Amino acid sequence: MPGGNTPRTLFDALSVLELRWDKVLITLTDERWVDPDHEHSNEKMLREHLLQHKAKTATLVPLKNSAATPFEGEKQLQTALQKLPDVMTLVLFGLGEDGHCASFFPHSPQLNAALDITSGKPCQAIASDQLRQTRMTLSLGRILARKLIILYFTGKKKRQVYQQALSAGSVENLPIRCVLTQQQTPVVVYWAP
To answer: Model-level pTM?
Structure first.
């Protein structure tokens, strides 16, 4: 599941659906390296908007551990992520106005490592000058190990970014291209003004 503001309403709606939530395993696509009760924590947002009502019995595998930095916590988190099935059902992706998805930020020093599908790493620590907080992201290889990718975004500006990403250009400038141009996992796009 993604973080950010866009999926909150969707998560509220999902939380009341009649599903076998006790059989659902969830992790985030990325997380800021802040405590789970911090106002910028994606985990906090997920707990407040999805893991409530009928969905409160779902199991969450967090992307933040007790290490001081994501670089120090990466190896421990890689072990924790081995609890996830090799292929999960779906990933819900957001889209940033700068063309980022998960924590694949344009021109990030760790972008190539996060996008390396041959690395075998399930996650990658991320830091860059443009970020207020360091982060942890699932690697592209782990994200593509799904049956379906759903790209969910709102707003005219993000639609323009999406349209631009469909044209030729570098992944480094618009990292969402790594998902839109791959042939491994089907992508379904949902957009609303």
So the answer is: 0.94
